[in-house]
Prior knowledge:
The protein is mostly beta strands. It has one domain: Alpha-Beta Complex (hypothetical protein yedk fold), CATH 3.90.1680.10. It is about 10% helix and about 40% strand. The strands form three sheets. Strands 2, 4, 5, 8, 9, 12, 13, 14 and 15 form a nine-stranded mixed sheet that branches. A hairpin with a 2-residue loop joins strand 12 (about 125-135) and strand 13. The chain is globular and about 55 Å long. The mean pLDDT is about 90.
Amino acid sequence: MCNHYRNQPDAIAQIESWKExxxxxxxxxxxxxxxxxxxxxxxxxEGEKKLVVLQWGVPLKMKGKRPGTTVTKRxxxxxxxxxxFWRSMLTNAENRCVVPFTQFAxxxxxxxxxxxxxxxxxEPVSAFAGIWRETDEGQAFAFLTCEPNPLVxxxxxxxxxxxxxxxxHDRWLSGEPAEAFQEPFPSQLMQIVD
Length: 194
């Protein structure tokens, strides 16, 4: 499960497939994105494509271990598309977003905090299939995961982020069924970054 990725805000504007997005950054986004931090997402607002900065991790209040207490978890990855928690965001096109990234990390097995970084070959910026919502703490996003491809599986056998091909961005944002996108990205189009 991806819990660390990188983006380069300056690079996004230079890429042909992102030129139609209009940036509205109220604050400078970090290049290293972790849960609870701010990341860039692309979404459609009032018919216009915009890049905005939102918090990564949709808050979910749960019962605490002690009676009468609650705990708030930040959910960063969406795997169960049938979950009622995600269903409304997945079925409403206005809650869809694309999450630009240059690289994403998975923890290296049995290596403590060491990570293995992946990128899409020959693409300076790619995008995860994401969803966002209003919360009591502001707007937040998460992105879909799927079965890992053969490149990611030896490092993280449970899941990898859903990566969209550039030609699929508009289809995702239009609200086509999420299940159609929950497929591993072709491993031959990816690489491990040193």
